[in-house]
Request: fold
Amino acid sequence: MADIKHSIPITAKPEAVYPLVATAKGFSQWWAEDIVESSGAVELGFFKRSTVYRLRLDVDKASTHAEWVCDSGDEWKATHLIFRLEAANSGTLLRFTHAGWKGETDYFVACTTTWGELMYRLKAMAEGKRPGPLFRMAEMAY
Reply:
C-alpha cells in the first residue's frame, strides 16, 4: 500500500482549521465548488462530474482529527483522507495523509502534487486569506 503525506504549519488555532477539513462547507472553501451532501456523505464532483468522490466521515474528533473514507473512484475507493491537527506555538501543525492506495501509479503521483497545492490553499483559507477552491465549476468546463 502507498500513502501520500504532507505536513504544514498554519498560523491559526486548531479550532479554526478543523471545520475546513471536517465539513462539506469547509471543503468548498479550498478544495472544490461542486459539493453535494447526502445520506451522511459528501460528494465532490470534478470535470462536470465525470469524476465524483463520495466521502464518509469516519473519525470526527473536534479540533484534533478528521478522517474520511472514500466510497468511490477506481483508485480512491477505500482510501482514507486523514487530517491530524496538533496545537503548536504559532497555531496548528496539520499532518495530512491520503492512505491506502493500492500502488504508486501515475495517478497517485499526480494526486501527490495536487494535494500539495491543496494544502497551501487550506493554509491560506485558515489564515484569513480567500484563495477559493482549487477546483471551480466554471474552470472545469473543458
